[in-house]
From TrEMBL:
The lineage of its organism: Bacteria, Bacillati, Bacillota, Bacilli, Bacillales. The chain crosses the membrane at residues 6-24, 36-57, 97-116, 123-146, 158-179. This is Antibiotic resistance protein VanZ. PANTHER family: INTEGRAL MEMBRANE PROTEIN, MEMBRANE PROTEIN-RELATED. The keyword Isomerase does not apply.
Amino acid sequence: MLLIFDVVEIGLVFLILYIIIDFIRNRTSNLLKRVIIYSFVFYILNVIQLTTGGIYIPPQKEFIPQFQLVPFYFIGDWISIYQNKGFDWFFWHSVKLSFYNLIMLFPLGVYLSVLFRVKRSSIAILTVFLSSLIIEIYQVVLAYLGLVGGRTFNIDDLLLNTLGGSAGFLTIMLVTRLFESNHYWQGKREAS
């Protein structure tokens, strides 16, 4: 009998227990930072669930790893699908999956700035890239071990994840600067 364990459900049980213990011990000190940390852990659980589809118990037959190492192959897929079938379900499904890969690590870029106080975009981009690389590697390893369904290493996922996470970081940095600039000008007006 195959069981597929939902990473979010299992992780959420432990996260809720931790939150309860944390509130008993620390009450409301540093509450905002702690809530951001809880939301980050919940986000990570969801990324793991999205990228694995759940954990298979018992492990299934071994999976032969597949690698897609051609950058921007998804664009060729779009063109090919469009030429063969037009704007059908397969075309829009492919576009949707690419969009999901683009936005999946957007929150990570935000967390890098807000939670981890990263200031340099080069460090943020490298961190997002390495996070995406880890995701691609664990997908192949877990699939090979039979713990997840047919996952592959896809360079396009790596590129789109990195672009999305970088956009998240740059967006929060821009919003922060705009807020600080607006706050500065309001202070100047009130002083006049």
